[in-house]
Design brief:
The structure is a single chain. The protein is α/β, with parallel strands linked by helices. It has helices spanning 28-40, 54-63, 84-98, 124-139, 153-162, 181-189, 209-218, 222-233, 244-251, 260-266; strands spanning 6-7, 13-14, 19-20, 44-46, 72-77, 103-108, 143-149, 169-173, 193-197, 236-237. The protein has one domain (14-201, 233-255): Alpha-Beta Barrel (TIM Barrel). The protein has 10 helices and 10 strands. The strands form 2 sheets. Strands 3-4-5-6-7-8-9-10 form an 8-stranded parallel sheet. Bound molecules: NADP nicotinamide-adenine-dinucleotide phosphate (NAP). NADP nicotinamide-adenine-dinucleotide phosphate binds next to α9.
Length: 267
Amino acid sequence: MQERKQKLQNGLLLPAIGFGTWLLSEGEEVRKAVIEAIDAGYRLIDTAAQYGNEKGIGKAVGESGLDRKDVLITTKLAAETKGYEETLRAFEASLKRLDTNYVDLYLIHSPVPWGARGDGMEYMEANIASWRAMEDLYRERRIRAIGVSNFEPVHLDALLAEADIAPMVNQIEINPFHEPKETIAYCQAKDIVIQAYSPLAQGRVFSARHLEELATEKGRTIAQVVLRWHYQKGFLPVPKSKNAERIKENIGIFDFELDAKEMKRIG
Ligand code: NAP
């Protein structure tokens, strides 16, 4: 069974599963994990300026033996960094740390700074200024696709009203305990591809009895049935692991299927 890639509005194909790197420390830890991930077959690495590990990721991609064009790198503009010039500067700093001359997917990490209260609509003007910078970088071919993260319909409406180029991706939290239906439906209607972060609920899926039962019936692991659920729903999960065996396990989801009843049992 072949992995089905997801086509963005501009034709760029994204792998159905990516490798998450939040909480992997800069240096050896992240470098080793990303090398393991690439060896296991992952072709999209998800990082962010705020993860503080872009240097190790750049090193791993450089050492992987693959052409740069064959490994996609996502990084994100920090939630606290907003504005046109601020975004250009932050992008250059990420590129330098990643030791590359382009980024495949660049996302606004969050419409609001971490910890801000309310819907954060007061930040939309600053987000739109960031978006203008991202559009310019995209036109200059220094970014292959641009998108957002943690955007809800209210933020997407405001952005779409001003954008020349619509966001191609929205990376949001999705897992069997958390499926934000309104945002998902909105993105699907506007052809915005959904990437699922914390796809394993940061480890909480492993103590769910109903998932354990299904995994046993399928002769699979809990991680595999949950990641297969994401895949069949059309979400692109980016699971993180620092362990070589689990990194391999998590991408082993393309040789079995869940039927409609099994899908319902998961979430
Ligand atoms: P996650 O991928 O849902 O879960 C990671 C946890 O599950 C880790 O504790 C990991 O432990 C464990 N794990 C992974 N595979 C396993 C397996 N097969 N068996 C048992 N345990 C397993 O959580 P996440 O890191 O929050 O989310 C994934 C990625 O999404 C992040 O790394 C990041 O790239 C992205 N993200 C983005 C945002 C955003 O705002 N855009 C927010 C959060 C996360 P070990 O490492 O010990 O295996």
